[in-house]
Amino acid sequence: MGSKLFTAGLVLALGAGCAFSAIAQVKPEVLVDQRIAAMRLQGKYLFPLVPMAQGKAPYDAAMVARNAGYLDVLIRLAWDGFDPGTQGVKSRALPEIYAEPAKFKAAQETMFTEMNKFVAAARSSNEANAKAGIGDVLKACNGCHDTFRQKAQ
Ligand code: HEC
Asked: Which of 110, 89, 107, 111 is nearest to 97 (CA)?
C-alpha cells in the first residue's frame, strides 16, 4: 500500500517534471548568470595551473590531474547560454557572437582540441606535455576572448 502510494507519487512527480521541462523557458538573465558562472569555474580550475606551467610554482601532478578532469566537463557548459535571446541582457558578450556564429563555434572547437591534449597528458602524468597543454588551453581561452568578449573597463 505504502509502496503503491510511493509509486503513484513518483509517477506524478516525473509527469510534472516532463511537463515542466517541455514548457520551461529559461529567463535570459538566468542564462547569462549561468554562462558567466561556468566561465568563472573554468578560470578557477585553470588559472592556478598557469604558474606551474611557467615554472613559477611547484608542479603538483595530483592537482593538475584533478583540475584537468573538472575542466574537461566545465568547458562544455557555457555555450548553450549564448542564446540570441540574451542579447538584451548586460554582459561582456560582444555582438560578433551572433553575427559570426561559425567563428564563435570554431573558437570553442579549438579549445576542445587543446583540452583533449592537455587531459591526455595530465592523465598519463606526462609533466612536460601537461605544462605545454596548460599554456595551449589558456591561449585558446584568450583567442576567443580577444574577439568575442568586451575588454574589462
Ligand atoms: C569561444 C569563446 C570563449 C572561450 C573558448 C572561452 N571563453 Fe571565457 N568568455 C567568453 C565570453 C563571450 C565571455 C563574456 C560572457 C558574458 O559576459 O556573458 C567570457 C567570460 C569569461 C570570464 C569572465 C567571467 C566574469 O566574471 O564576467 C572568465 C573568467 C572566462 N571567460 C574564463 C575562460 C577560461 C578560463 C577559458 C578557457 C578554459 C575560457 N574562458 C574560454 C568566451 C569564451
From this structure: 107
Q: Which residues line ligand 1 (CB under 6 A)?
A: 32, 35-36, 39-40, 42-43, 46, 75, 91-93, 104, 107-108, 111, 137, 140-141, 144-145, 148-149
- Ligand 1 midpoint to CA 73 (Å): 15
Nearest CA to 133 among 146, 122, 144?
122
Residue of 104, 115, 141, 150 best suited for mutating to test ligand 1, as the one with most atoms within 8 Å of CB: 141
Tens-digit pLDDT string for the chain (153 aa):
455 665 555 555 555 544 444 445 899 999 999 999 999 999 999 999 999 999 999 999 999 999 999 999 999 999 999 999 999 999 999 999 999 999 999 999 999 999 999 999 999 999 999 999 999 999 999 999 999 999 997
